[in-house]
From TrEMBL:
Keywords (A to Z) from UniProt: DNA-binding, Transcription, Transcription regulation
Coiled coil, from the record: none
Matching InterPro entries: HTH_HxlR, WH-like_DNA-bd_sf, WH_DNA-bd_sf
Domain HTH hxlR-type: 8-113
Keyword Transcription on entry: yes
Protein name stated in the entry: Winged helix-turn-helix transcriptional regulator
Pfam families attached to this UniProt entry: HxlR
Keyword Transcription regulation: yes
């Protein structure tokens, strides 16, 4: 019986972590969120701030982030029409996660280089 409880406790952790990783996983999503968060709101500015990302990949990732309610695409009706990207308020909930990943990465690098 205790074995089954441990299994359930494990799944209660694994499932939400997996759900989180399904949203922010990959090479580009966190860098895009960070880029927009520091003020890069135009497509080309975001692309230039993230070395190695292609326009096709950036467009796909922005659409994914829009679907997950983390980024909002804003059309500015001027001539010429301008598009900007802004973080949704909900994206602020990722701030502690991003800083925790940053801190872990710094500490891990130190540990590996010891």
């Amino acid at each position: 019986m205790a074995q089954k409880k441990v299994h359930c406790d494990c799944l209660e952790i694994i499932r939400p972590v997996r759900d989180t990783l399904d949203v922010i996983n990959g090479k580009w999503k966190i860098p895009i969120i960070i880029s927009i968060g520091v003020g890069n709101d135009r497509f080309t500015d975001i692309q230039e701030s993230i070395p190695g990302i292609s326009p096709k990949v950036l467009a796909k990732e922005l659409k994914d982030l829009e679907q997950h309610k983390l980024v909002r695409r804003v059309v500015i009706e001027e001539y010429p029409v301008k598009i900007s990207y802004q973080l949704e308020e909900y994206a602020d909930t990722l701030t502690p996660v991003i800083y925790a990943l940053k801190d872990w990465g710094i500490n891990h690098k130190k540990k590996v280089l010891e």
